[in-house]
């Protein structure tokens, strides 16, 4: 009988240890969920930063090389978050789609993948409207206007992004801790 009680007691210790480990795993998962959501928000800001780089490079290529849009899209490689959108746009254009619809469809796909926020989609799509139909100086002026709009959007988005990132990390950890507290 005495040996059975001893065995029973060690089983309770194992169960408590498993509960603690489970609680730690829940907290960790909540924190990871918060980090994931924070990173998604940060990617949208990074997309706008890279869009500004894209516009700068496009302006330079038009100024110095008088390049067309296929040359521009094919040579820009310093914007890794935008690369899938640019590749998709080129693919659509190679299949016969005009630049404006190919660019907007690719931007919508990036929005669906949460790389672009819904509120930024119109700004990104408006870049393509009439692109290539103006002279070089007019195109450069239009690009500078788009760059100014994107820089303004980035300055608005930055404080909001920082706040949301902190909020998502805290909420994720808190939810994991609450789930752990409920289960334990």
What does this entry look like structurally?
By secondary structure, this protein is an all-alpha fold. It has a domain at 45-157. The protein contains 6 helices and no strands. It has helices at 2-65, 69-75, 83-94, 99-112, 118-126, 136-183. Helix 3 (83-94) crosses helix 4 and helix 4 (99-112) runs antiparallel to helix 5 (118-126). The longest helix is centred in the N-terminal third of the chain and has 64 residues, at 2-65. The radius of gyration is 25 Å and the shape is elongated. Mean pLDDT is 82; it is low at 1-7.
Short recap of the structure:
With 184 residues, the chain is an all-alpha fold.
Summarize the amount of helix as a percent range. over 70%
How large, in whole angstroms, is the Cα Rg? 25 Å
Tell me the fraction of residues in β-strands, as a range. Answer: under 5%
Major β-sheet annotation: none
Regions with little confidence, pLDDT below 50 for 5+ residues: 1-7
- The arrangement of helices and strands along the chain is HHHHHH
Q: Write down the overall geometry.
A: elongated
Measured distance between first and last alpha carbons: 30 Å
| Helical run tally | 6
Structural class by sheet pairing and helices: mainly alpha
Number of strands: 0
- Average of per-residue pLDDT values: 82
């Amino acid at each position: 009988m005495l040996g059975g009680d001893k065995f029973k007691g060690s089983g309770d210790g194992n169960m408590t240890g498993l509960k603690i480990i489970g609680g730690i795993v829940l907290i960790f998962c909540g924190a990871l969920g918060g980090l994931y959501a924070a990173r998604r928000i940060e990617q949208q800001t990074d997309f706008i930063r890279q869009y500004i780089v894209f516009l700068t490079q496009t302006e330079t290529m038009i100024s110095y090389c008088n390049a067309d849009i296929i040359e521009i899209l094919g040579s820009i490689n310093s914007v890794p978050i935008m690369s899938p959108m640019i590749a998709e746009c080129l693919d659509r254009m190679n299949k016969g789609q005009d630049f404006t619809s190919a660019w907007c469809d690719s931007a919508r796909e990036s929005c669906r993948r949460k790389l672009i926020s819904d509120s930024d989609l119109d700004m990104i799509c408006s870049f393509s409207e009439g692109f290539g139909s103006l002279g070089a100086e007019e195109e450069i002026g239009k690009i500078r206007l788009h760059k100014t709009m994107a820089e303004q959007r980035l300055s608005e988005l930055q404080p909001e992004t920082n706040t949301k990132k902190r909020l998502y990390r805290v909420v994720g950890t808190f939810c994991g801790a609450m789930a752990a507290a409920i289960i334990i």
